[in-house]
Amino acid sequence: MNTTLKMREVGLKLVMTVIFTALAVVMVTPFLWMISSSFKLPADIFKYPIDWIPERFVLDNYKEVWFGKYPFLLYYWNSVKITAITVGGCLITSALAGFAFAKLKFKGRDFLFVLYLATMIIPGQILLVPRFILFDKLGMLNTHLSLILPGMFTVLGTFIMRQFFSTLPNELLEAAKVDGAGYWRMFWQISLPLTKPALVTLLILTFTWHWNEYENPLIFLRDNKLYTIPLALTNYVDENSTNYTLIMAASVSALLPLIAIVSIFQKWFIEGIASSGIKG
């Protein structure tokens, strides 16, 4: 009986492995084609059968993308600056708010948290006009601050950190309090170092959102020199609608930071998702 069950388990694992391997191949193939096409001449991009390794390997597409009419070097700097400051601010505010909602006892805490979560049902598009008017009055329109400041506060980030802080035993903080530790020390030296998986999860999510953000830069930025990567990609599609090799090179360049971030922090990201209770 046990042998039969083990054989069924092994067979099920084998079938699932084959299925997920096939799905992975289907998902990865377009990205491999995009990378391959970015090193080809325009005449070779639609050659059939596909030359996954280009016969004529060229770097001119990347030279044009990075130093041409729409220099990605400038747009990369804009996106890196906006994303880095926004993500850093988001991690700080979310960690502080999450700790307060999870470990500090004050009147109306749970009601305030539920009310804060309820703001997630408000579509972001509804707030565009009030934000546009506000930043116009403050003189922040057509500046990177109009993208950075709103992005530093996120309900989902507070929820993730609150869920993770809630898993920490209260006895740990009570022992620190007996030893004379204040709230700041309990947060900074005791609780925060234990929340690395949650912080990495939030880092990856917010980095992805703000790196790929298109709508807000399109509305709040007018100067071409302030554009971010998504707006630069739009320019490439408009200007080079038939030159697919340039579009592929620009797309690969835009994806590299996302691939690097996820690859580096994948281990903590999976652990943070499991610990915070987020499900797809």
From TrEMBL:
CDD domains: TM_PBP2 (cd06261). InterPro entries: MetI-like (IPR000515), MetI-like_sf (IPR035906). Keywords: Cell membrane, Membrane, Transmembrane, Transmembrane helix, Transport. It is found in: Cell membrane. Residues 76-265 form the ABC transmembrane type-1 domain. Its main location: membrane. It is a multi-pass membrane protein. GO terms for biological process: transmembrane transport. One of its GO terms (cellular component) is plasma membrane. Belongs to the binding-protein-dependent transport system permease family. This is ABC transporter permease subunit.
